Predict the 3D structure of the following.
Amino acid sequence: MTRASAFLLKNKAVILGSNFYTGLSIIRGLGSQGIHTVAMDYSKANTYGAKSRYLAEQFIVPHYRERPEELLRYMVDYAKKQDAKPVLFPSVDPYVEFVDSHLDELRNHYLINMTAQGNWSRIMDKRHLHDLAAKHGVFVPESLSPAADRFEERVIAEIGFPCIVKPTDSPAFVSVFRTKSFICNNIDEVKEAIGKAHRAKLEVIVQRIIPGFDDHVYTFDAYLDRNSKVTHWMTCQKMRQFPIRFGASSFTKQKHVEDLHRIGAPFLEAIGYKGFAEIEFKKDADSGKFYLLEVNARTTTLDPLLRKCGINFPLLAYRELTGQPIGSQAVRHDTGIAFCYLFEDLIASRDYVKSKQLGVAQIVKSHFTKRAPAIWSPTDPAPAIYFLGMMLRKAVRKFSRP
């Protein structure tokens, strides 16, 4: 064992959530480098990421929403027993919100990129994010709060139809409605959508839909060091998403777009961001302008693609937080590699064909490229096998119901 690898093993990496492939990707990205990885899950059910050969330990912990104070105590007690502070990685938005709400205490026991409690939550809040972007000269889609003066009149005149009603707090909205937004074709549908959200005690905004097919959505993926300077970055282009039009990536290729760095890097640096961030943009099909849609403040679904293109973002965080140099790197060429979450991409592809937005030949052709699968790995097959078993069991239960 080299001196460097011995240093790496000193601090454990704690991953919150192994029941989604972002958690699995963090486990692989760190565990493959000799780092002791620990998964904390509120249930063993569906934790296919924990089947990875690169996971050292899994602990079942209190639920982040149902018993947050107990989870906090568990995490603090766990960290106190370690020889060195663990590095903490929340894998999905609800865990980001949990960590952010207890950041001041957790930072006493864990190594975490963000240093100011509340920053992640403010960035994840769509209304606050749009105000920040506008302040720093970044284009954002025209939006209105339901509390705005002459609301209905302005929706018709300034937003237009179709439009979307989207949450200020996406994780809470998705947990209730199982969708990221409501698409509305007239003012009555807007009022109905707002009513649904208000009855669920969720705040929403009404937003203009930027024209352009799903392949007009791009990402700027970056790492910012402790001085809030972008050290590593690359850009990607969505090709398909699920659900179609307003969903998560199911097929995305790495695509160099220098303009996204020109817009995204100064913005993230200006707001004092630290650690990994992914800005999602949409290119207006009419004007060619890039509009900021959201910022993902944690490891994203594209992590397998980013790593295969040469930048291991979780490893960057681990190394910097444990006092190692990280240098700088940018992918300024097209690698031809594409991320694919095949399970959802098959469903999305069916819907694109059904709605006549894509042809079968176009979809089939896209798969003849080097891919970064969301779950499958020939060197770590167990998570994919377990995931397939999960899907088969769900299918059997669905079709066996009377």
Remarks:
- Residues 142-208 form a domain with the Dna Ligase; domain 1 fold (CATH 3.30.1490.20).
